[in-house]
Amino acid sequence: DGGITQSPKYLFRKEGQNVTLSCEQNLNHDAMYWYRQDPGQGLRLIYYSQIVNDFQKGDIAEGYSVSREKKESFPLTVTSAQKNPTAFYLCASSSQAPVRGAGTDTQYFGPGTRLTVL
Amino acid sequence: GEDVEQSLFLSVREGDSSVINCTYTDSSSTYLYWYKQEPGAGLQLLTYIFSNMDMKQDQRLTVLLNKKDKHLSLRIADTQTGDSAIYFCAVRTYKYIFGTGTRLKVLA
Known about the structure:
The complex is a heterodimer of chains A (about 120) and B (about 110).
Chain A lengths: L3 E4 L2 E4 L5 E7 L5 E7 L5 E9 L2 E4 L6 E3 L9 E3 L8 E8 L13 E2 L3 E5 L1
Parallel strand pairs in A: 2-11
Antiparallel strand pairs in A: 1-3, 3-8, 4-5, 4-9, 5-6, 7-8, 9-10, 9-11
Chain B lengths: L3 E3 L2 E5 L4 E7 L6 E7 L5 E8 L4 E4 L2 E6 L4 E6 L8 E8 L3 E3 L3 E6 L1
Parallel strand pairs in B: 2-11
Antiparallel strand pairs in B: 1-3, 3-8, 4-5, 4-9, 6-7, 7-8, 9-10, 9-11
């Protein structure tokens, strides 16, 4: 089955620790994204990657880091510099990023990771 | 700036139609999407419409697009309890912009 997987589903972090959230896709998509979702708010873009070995900051990149060493993988690290990291994190992918887009370039989402800071 | 707005809550009775509304500001939006999110889950694509279309129907779902007013709506016919979820409107320009989501509650 083609799709996007995220792990773990739930993650607990002590203050001052860095944690890494996994995102893998087997859809052969070039573009991948990380969003943060807080209650009563829409999705806010953290980082995105249009192609392997390239990534760009989104609207709320401070305190986060990413890498894109393989096409299918786009891990997100939440660093201790992120002041309020408790949230639901969603990974998504699309065949191409909108700036290069042709066709629908629909985003497909993973099941999410809920991060709680203790 | 670019913005997508939705009302936060909608409550309907089972069997009635639900209409979820969305307004956006960027007239260069090319594709417009509706996603459904169930508790603790990711976003599931329901349908999308291209900006040169006025309407799209897919089984119980009808999408209406009024480009002049920059208004998008999703109508769910014969709403069921399984339709209870948060519904997100999203538009694509040079990036994707999501609304805040509308929580639909279906009363039995």
